[in-house]
Write a structure and sequence with these properties.
By secondary structure, the protein is of the alpha/beta class. It has a single domain, classed as Vaccinia Virus protein VP39 (Rossmann fold, 3-Layer(aba) Sandwich), CATH 3.40.50. It has twelve helices and seven strands. It has a seven-stranded mixed beta sheet, sandwiched between helices. The longest helix has 19 residues. The protein is globular and about 50 Å long. It starts with 6 loop residues before the first helix and ends with a strand. 38% of the residues are buried. It binds S-adenosylmethionine. The site of S-adenosylmethionine has 22 residues, from helix 7.
Length: 281
């Protein structure tokens, strides 16, 4: 597998921070129970293998939060930023990183699936930052947010979800009211088939770019879009095409590069295989 990150750089970055400024007190307790050898072993796995259940410990929490902390620092150098996430599900990776980076920032997510939104509401209400949840397709974001009002648009491991939801819609499958994870095997079958038959671009590019363009309308000039991806073993076990799963961002990069209102930027420490950054012109 293409490595997710450079282990030595990751270790150096972790050594450079005050853990108390990134982790919450209960996470610090968990961290303090780990030896250096265990931490290094876990980081090695995270950097070199698709993530599986055993990876979701405080070590991964720190790794991913620090990565997003650094992405926020690069993309929203002015504090009090408003960040829009597309397809958060119930995950609080982004609002947690925002809490660590700037407690005065505001988080907004556009998330379609009802059950996952309920989970998100429960998790996020414990955090000190301001937030809004938009229960709709991000393609309709202009109905909710003013033009040029957002500092950063984030797709945290959600390009795959957005593409899968578009394919489901094309196939008459409702991803809003059904259980997302019950639909997952079918979604994986659909997207892997399109990839193998080389019809991914024909089926998905226009709809995906339309969604991105609508997000760009609410993004401030000079604002960024930050996109991350990594591999879960779980999806591979369900039959995700391994090449598609690994190369998700290199596959959509040429699509995004067709947009005339953005330019791709490269940020030190972020592997362009797993991270895409675009700046609005
Ligand atoms: C598996 S979940 C969570 C993804 C999350 N980024 C992660 O990896 O932990 C995927 C979510 O993306 C949402 N989603 C997919 N396409 C979307 C769209 N066009 N607009 C808003 N939400 C979308 C789904 O409704 C679902 O709640």
């Amino acid at each position: 597998m293409k490595h997710l990150d450079d282990i030595e750089n990751v270790k150096k970055r972790i050594e450079s921070i005050d853990l108390n400024s990134i982790l919450f007190p209960s996470e610090i307790n968990e961290w303090s129970e780990l030896t250096k050898e265990i931490v290094d072993k876990k980081l090695q796995r995270i950097c070199s293998l698709p993530l599986c259940d055993e990876d979701f410990t405080v070590v991964y929490t720190l790794y991913s939060r620090l990565k997003w902390f650094d992405a926020l620092k690069a993309c929203t150098p002015n504090k009090n930023a408003t960040v829009l996430e597309v397809g958060s599900g119930s995950s609080t990776v982004i609002p947690n990183a925002m809490t660590a980076y700037d407690v005065n920032s505001k988080y907004i997510t556009a998330n379609m699936n009802k059950k996952l939104t309920e989970g998100l509401e429960k998790n996020i209400s414990k955090l000190p930052i301001k937030f809004d949840i938009i229960e709709d397709d991000a393609n309709n974001i202009k109905n909710y947010l003013a033009s040029n009002s957002i500092d950063l648009v984030v797709f945290e491991h959600s390009v795959n979800d957005v593409l899968q939801a578009i394919l489901c819609e094309q196939n008459g499958i409702d991803t809003t009211h059904n259980d997302w994870f019950e639909l997952l095997p079918k979604m994986i079958e659909l997207i892997s088939k399109e990839y193998v038959e080389q019809t991914l671009e024909k089926k998905l590019k226009l709809a995906f770019l339309s969604l991105v363009n609508n997000c760009l309308c609410v993004l401030k000039p000079d604002g960024y879009i930050a996109i991350s991806h990594y591999m879960f073993q779980y999806d591979l076990n369900l039959g995700y095409n391994p090449e598609l799963w690994q190369d998700m961002l290199p596959i959509i990069r040429p699509w995004l590069n067709e947009l005339s209102n953005v330019k791709e930027v490269f940020i030190d420490g972020f592997d362009p295989h797993w991270w895409l950054f675009y700046q609005k012109l």
